[in-house]
Design goal:
Layout lengths: L4 E5 L6 H11 L4 E5 H7 L11 E3 L5 E3 L1 H19 L3 E6 L5 H10 L5 E7 L2 H11 L6 H5 L11 E4 L5 H9 L4
């Protein structure tokens, strides 16, 4: 069976989005890149800084509430439906709850051929990228660097600490059927 979904899981500023764009360049056939940022950007402003939606702490911590989880459930179901309808999907994700986050996606993606990819980056390097970007809460990259990988099982891992996004994308593409 051909790979239908690639899940890139890593902390903020680990390089997932860059890898996703590079994958779209090197993989045959069109692939859609969708991520947790896509969903958050689509949420109403009233849920983007609230206890019932998603909130970003001054230390870079992220908390999600019940309204966020409801929307996330609908989002993951919709992304899975697109893959079942024939779209090839690259998911740019941050498993804040580690293995539980992977389980939620795995349930939604049941029956699809999924390549699970861990995107790692040393916390100090990710924090430097976070500062350079200027659009993230300081501390988010460092706090997520290891947290998002706890208990998660991967088919493949890449490390962007010293490896460019294109090289990582080529490594991942080599595992796509």
């Amino acid at each position: 069976m051909k790979t239908q979904v690639i899940v890139l899981n890593g902390g903020s500023s680990s390089g997932k989005s860059g890898i996703a764009r590079c994958l779209q360049t090197v993989l045959p056939y069109p692939w859609l890149a969708l991520g947790t940022d896509t969903m958050v950007d689509a949420m109403p402003a009233s849920l983007q800084a609230s206890e019932s939606g998603i909130a970003f702490g001054p230390d870079g911590g992220v908390s999600v509430g019940p309204r966020f989880r409801e929307l996330e459930d609908a989002w993951t179901e919709g992304v899975a439906a697109m893959a079942r309808a024939g779209a090839r999907i690259i998911i740019d994700e941050v498993f804040l709850s580690g293995a539980a986050g992977q389980r939620r996606w795995s349930e939604r993606l049941g029956g699809l051929e999924v390549l699970w990819v861990g995107v790692r980056c040393e916390p100090e390097v990710a924090a430097g990228r976070e500062t350079a970007r200027g659009d993230r809460v300081a501390g988010m990259a460092a706090s997520q660097a290891e947290l998002v990988h706890r208990g998660v099982a991967y088919d493949l891992e890449v490390d962007t600490t010293r490896t460019e996004a294109m090289a990582c994308a080529r490594t991942i593409a080599g595992h796509v059927r």
